[in-house]
# Entry
Amino acid sequence: MKIDFDSRLLDISFEIYALEDHLLLIEEQMENMRNTENNKLKKLIKNDDLTPDDPEWHFANQEFNHRFEFLLPRVFRGPFIVTLYAIYEIAVTEIARLIQTTKCKSTSFSEFKGKNFLDRSKKYYKSILQFELCSDNKEWERIIMLAELRHALAHANGRLEMLKVGNRKNIKRMTKQAIGIEEFNGYLVFSAEFTKETFCMVRLSLEELIRRYKEWDSEQKTSQP
# Structure
């Protein structure tokens, strides 16, 4: 029995699947750590007979909350956001290169101008490749948001005061949307729900782009004499 194995853009698909597994591990690890430390906290409070009237009770709870509401979510989910955007960017670039080569377009993606990567990509796909990059407005809005957050994380470690005024204003607007982007001690922190939802939307957009490219590529090959 012959198996029709499609190896086109396989590396990108593997990276998407691996990133999903990584996110599951991140959330599972944080939950396990929270449960373990919460049990230690309860044991400490019980053994030392602490009450809310004791400074030690407040200190122990503040330390716990700081670690699990701020520090670990920032350190674990921030790099995931950066990696997610990196996969999206390389996938869009690779598919653009493949279509350009097939269509024999003289203008390469790297030569095309735009105010940022997403603006350049949208224009290049439309005007040069005549191939739609993303048709879902909700997914595209989330990808734009992802790019802004990635910039803040990669260039300022999520510290808002270190960003340019325009970037800081954009992110401030995001934090007011109540979608799981929060400012904590001057740093960006993401909820588990926002991180998962963003991954799912980016994955859907990429899978759709890859599917359409493969269909188009197959049509080009079958139409050749």
